[in-house]
Amino acid sequence: MSVTVETLEKLERKIILTLPENAIKSEVDTRLRKLARTVKMDGFRPGKIPINAISQRYGYSVYHEILNDKLGKAFSAAANEARLRVVGQPLITPSQTPNPEGMVAFDAVFEVYPDVQAPDLATLEVKKFNTEVNEEVLNKTIDFLRKQKRSFTPRPDGASAQDTDRVTVDFEGKIDGEPFEGGKADNFQFILGEGQMLKAFEEAAIGMKTGESKTFQLQFPADYHGKDVAGKTADFMLSIKSIEETHLPEVDQEFARSLGSKDGSVESLRAELVQNLEREVNARLLARNKQNVMDALLSGTTLDVPQASVQTDMERMLEAMRTQLKERGMKDADKAQLPVEMFRSQAERRVRLGLILAELVRTHGLQATPEQVRAYIEDMAASFENPAEVVRFHLTNNQKIAEAGNLVTEKNVVEFVFAHAKISSEDITVDALMANS
């Protein structure tokens, strides 16, 4: 058959579908006669119901059921004939054009996927971050773990508070002589020098002794999280209740065993920490570099996005938000009035990026292989207590396999882009990587 496809706007298309009236009527009559033999109706014996009564009760629904079925098949055939890649479901309405004799006509309006022209990777500029887990990073990690297991002992009478001490204090702050919310506490503990309190507050406590009190002024930063006091100056009364000295554990076998080292040796602990750090750093590096690649691909590609796909993605994100709100204890989260439009920008980016990635994967054969997926799952499972059980769970779960496959495919794309694009390398510290990931 000859199919005429009309372009309406961007990716929107229209096809006129025509169906013979006689064929529809014949099938409706056949269906109603079958119903007459089986349905029950008050006042009539089974199988003796007049066809007019059946038609009056069921004719409308049967007609539309048959019509929708035939329209669906006609649209599918027309789309295949025209070799169209249809997005979503068409909107089918009675045609505005006159019906051909003996026919009924309908307008099918729908969207098609765009023809994606991936950017010339040789001209694409992408920043690539690099870092390494060195001795300094390892030692900082060990120091952090030591702090997690530190202990405290009271300082002797007359000793002054200093950095790393834990102090217990009472304080009360006032602004223009008036107390403010969050400005008072009793028996409040914090560790000096760790930024748990504003710098001026810590500086006021340093050098004080147990039992001492003092007043001082503190100006809250303009961007302070407490909007009511941001940028204002408060007068504080501070009293020291106790001062405790910090004791960090030695890095020895006891410390290694407390952290779950396999054989309890410091050497094994350091080796395991390096392995875990490298796994975490590599994951965060991949995430940062993947973001750079995706941004570059988006900036280098111009294409229209099918709004049907955008709408579906928006609704999916809305449902995900409702689920999160419900998990956090929000009552009636499924009924909350949340505007789906809040997700439009994000959805359009995701759909556009998905089309670009699909084209790169198709063109360059970057789909994850079963071997890559298994290797990814095994590497991910290595950080768990029972890796073999985690691997077995993932490899017997189709959803988990699909999720892993998508991640590996994205990694393949990132590596492919880096291999062919203009790369500007930039070193980044592990601390900066962790802070911004």
Number of helices: 12
Mean pLDDT: 92
The number of E-state strands comes to 11
Main beta sheet strand tally, sense and closure: 5 strands, antiparallel
Q: Tell me the number of structural domains.
A: 3
Ends apart, CA distance between termini: 56 Å
Morphology call: elongated
CATH fold description of the largest domain: Trigger factor, domain 2
CATH architecture of the largest domain: Orthogonal Bundle
Structural class: alpha+beta
CATH class of the largest domain: Mainly Alpha
The helix fraction, in percent, is 40-55%
Encode the helix/strand succession as letters. EEHHEEEHEEEHEEHHHHHHHEH
Beta-strand residue fraction:
15-25%
Unreliable residue stretches:
none
Rg on CA atoms, Å: 35 Å
Structure, described:
The protein is α+β, with helices and mostly antiparallel strands. It has three domains: 5-112, Trigger factor ribosome-binding domain (Alpha-Beta Plaits), CATH 3.30.70; 151-247, Chitinase A, domain 3, CATH 3.10.50.40; 266-301 and 343-436, Trigger factor, domain 2 (Orthogonal Bundle), CATH 1.10.3120. 46% of the residues lie in helices and 22% in strands. The chain has helices spanning 21-38, 51-81, 135-148, 199-205, 253-258, 266-299, 307-327, 344-364, 370-381, 387-395, 398-420, 430-436, and strands at residues 5-9, 12-20, 86-94, 103-112, 125-130, 151-154, 166-175, 178-191, 213-219, 233-247, 422-427. The strands form three sheets. Strands 6, 7, 8, 9 and 10 form a five-stranded antiparallel sheet that branches. Strands 1-2-4-3 form a four-stranded antiparallel sheet, with helices on both faces. Strands 5-11 form a two-stranded parallel ribbon. A hairpin with a 2-residue loop joins strand 1 (5-9) and strand 2 (12-20). Helix 6 (266-299) crosses helix 11 (398-420), helix 9 (370-381) packs antiparallel against helix 10 and helix 9 (370-381) crosses helix 11. It is elongated, with a radius of gyration of 35 Å. The relative contact order is 0.11.
